[in-house]
Amino acid sequence: MLFITMTAQTTLVLCLLTKAAWGEMKFPPGFRFGAATAAYQIEGSWNVSDKAESVWDRFTHEHKYYVDSGSNGDVACDSYNRWKDDVRIAKELNLHFYRYGWFFLTYAGK
Fold it and tell me: Could you say which residues form the signal peptide (predicted)?
């Protein structure tokens, strides 16, 4: 379940943290790790609450033939509804920063 909502960037951070923990890489003192997501690729729930339709929502709904699989981001990783899982995962990875779509979170402690 840990990897269900992880993005490619988060996976890269996990790999870097793993290598750093094994001593294969060294980071300067004070170095801080973070991860970022892109709203359309992870949020889903395009027509929920007060969210406005994005350019990509409109494009993929009206021009499905331009997308190889005909898919869209209506569900994506469903991070709109599973944001607590994403924050938990970020904490488990000991990230200092996490940018969710446009919303930026910083952790004051561990």
Answer: 1-23
Query: Which amino acid is it at 81?
Result: N
3-state class (DSSP) for residue 103? strand
Does 28 map to a domain? no
CA–CA gap between residue 25 and residue 66 (Å, rounded): 42
Cα–Cα distance for residue pair 65/57, rounded to 1 Å: 14
Compute the Cα dihedral for 17, 23, 24, 25 and give only its sign.
Answer: positive
Q: How far is Cα of residue 64 from the mean position of the Cα atoms in its chain?
A: 24
Q: Residue 9 domain-assigned?
A: no
The total of structural domains in the chain comes to: 1
Domain range enclosing 73:
33-104
Enumerate the β-bridge partners of residue 35: 98
Walking along the chain (110 residues) 10 residues at a time, the average pLDDT comes out as 50 68 74 83 78 83 88 84 86 85 51
pTM of the model: 0.59
Whether 25 maps to a domain, the answer reads: no
pLDDT of residue 5: 46
